[in-house]
Specification:
By secondary structure, the protein is an alpha+beta fold. It is built from 14 helices and 38 strands.
Amino acid sequence: MIKTNRKWRFFVIHHSHTDIGYTERQERIEQYHVDFIRQALQISRDARTGTRSEWSGFKWTCETFWAVEQFLKEASAEEKNDFAEAVRQGDIELSGTYLNMTELPDYDLLRSIHSKAAEYGRSIGCPVDSAMTADINGYSWGYAQSLAEAGIQYLFSCIHTHHGMFALGRKQIPFWWETPSGDKLLVWNGDHYMLGNELGFCPDAVGSYMIRDEFHTPAIVDNHFEIMTTRIERYLNKLEEEQYPYDFVPVMVQGLATDNGSPNGEIAEVLRKWNAENGDEVRIELSTLSEFFRHLKQQEADIPVYRGDWPDWWSDGIGSTPMQTQIFKDAQRTLRKVKRLDPQKQIVSSAELSEIEQQLIMYAEHTWGFHASVHSPWHWNVQMLEVRKLAYAANASRLAHGALDQVRNALDGSLLYPGRPFRYRVVNTEEHPSKQLVDLEWDGFENERFKDGLEVVEESSGQVVPSQRGYQTVTVEADLQPGEQKQFFIRPAEVSKAKTTSNFKLVGAETINDIEDIYSHGAEQEAFIISQYAVESPFAVIRWSEDEGIVSWVNKETGEEMIRADRKHGAFTPVYEVTPAVDPINPSSIYTARSSMGRNRKGLNVKRSAGRIVKAKAVGSGPLYGVVELQFQTPGMSYYSLFLKLYATINRVDVAVRFHKDSVWEPENVYISLPFTNGSLDNETLWFDKSGALVRPWTDQLPGTLLDYSCVQEGLAFVSDDRSLMIATPDTPLMQLGSLEHGKRLLHTQQREDTERQLYAWVMTNYWETNFKATLGGFYEFRYHLEWSKDIGTADKAIGRCQTMSSGFATWRIK
């Protein structure tokens, strides 16, 4: 007989964790989940008709609406009716979530996916009020808002503490999560999504993952009921010991001892047997999410309210495929351009937009590869599933840019034909004003048209505007309000190419300016002064040293330094980490080097090094911008260069980071240092552009949540009342704030006023021992845009500037 101090009730929620590509091919997983719904319908039917009366009480929760969507695509009319009826009568329940996502989706995409279950529920007369996730360990703050907008009132979070951790400092407790706009979700901060299996609720599907005890527990055991009785008693006694406030507890269970497991009617049979013997003391019942939450709301215990972000520990997977993540980000921004240029969907149909969204969703879903990716990277399934996962980003890019082409063609776009004019339209598709440099491009064979020079005319005024010539491009400046557009045309013009040497300017034959001029040379002051150790524009002076990289970034308007004095590394210096394996060519050793990292994402024996500048040179300059290259010598890379593009008329610098990463099998991390300040360290606030919300990291967070890193949308900003420094990060969304040193990790509320906080872009990682891409080798270019202003003193305006810089203006050649 089981012994506890109170009478208990288990709410058992039966589901299948959706991992698209972890255990099988993506299309095979889809087939599984479609069939799981058919199996659940049959089990429900057999239980209700008495064919299998021992399965009475069976209930099934569709963890993701994606599975339902795939089922409805191929179901017969009869199956669709049967499914809708099973939902209405409570045998099957819908979750308001679509898939278990990373933090990559922007708010538009979140709203789209969270509307799907809600719309279907309304269509069958059964509103969806509950949602669940499994495996992932957090969400952007806007995720909560998008659920609330879809009518979701309850969220059940099944955390997974492998390289992650639950929030609030304890699990199996509820809280109210207040959204950015003030709505509230009732959240259950739950345990692992297969805890019910370990407690023995499913026969032939036991295990020991969270519970490590004396029992030998493969999936199929001979002493199932002994394990079940012992573990349930210990678990409930532990809850009592921890002063758990309720006499009930929810637990998730799967029908097989694997992710993507099927429904199992025998769970109901086991629970009936248990209740016949122990139900007076501990009753165990299959339940739906909404049934559990309704019971929870009837309790008298106080439920705390929290506001803020819930950074996901598992968003770091995006750093294992950095180039494909970059393509995803570009495709998502391109889709945003399409929607804003064609708001009435007169050019690109809803179906076409939905297909772009679907490809984005499938890339942003949390599964990053086959489970053997690291120790067997040559395995056929590893190679095949990796290519297919990455194809989602490629397809999203192809479809989004194709849609943008449709829109531009419909809006006077010019395709290739003889004699087409050099006319261009430039549109600000973002919701904030912006002044930017714009490239007007043509084809190589057209260069001869401008062999003697060119000039650019702004059509509405007829004025020639300043421009800077490239090989197949000319750059002009455009200052646009949200939604505003301007048109330019290019015409041939004779430009003097006469140049001569100066008798006063102290520049050597190799064109390196490494001596200050003694005398003024009488010519007009150049916009850019470039030397071996510094570059100066009208708005900034940037200095570097060989060992420390970029050490100074002075705002000329205020004279203030914008690089922190307490920096660990210079601005945009690469920081490389590798954790050596005992045997770097042994798959087991490679796996072992990763498996004990926990939440450090590196080993105790990690080797860390920073790049050193070995060469600086001027790439070119003109009336609008100048470019300097800083070349670094960096471990783990055969090439690493920064290209600094300084603007002559805007207080902005664009940075392109180009490198060739060596292929290394051992666990690695690559960071790019961003040790910036707006010049007012005492009263500046750091803001992140999170999906659906502006967030102050380390402040606007739930207690007990991740501090080390966070996934941003388009950038970040250091904001004071009288100034801001904005950094757009279009390609690398992971921002590292916690210490790079191996050691105890801090959670929100554990930091102190003096806790060190250094900012890096975390651009690459392959540390995970199961399904990250094993090698990061290859060629990359990542972009950053920096702008500073004393006229921007709010987070909304500063982050809006990041969004416009990341997106850039929509520009195309017109008839």
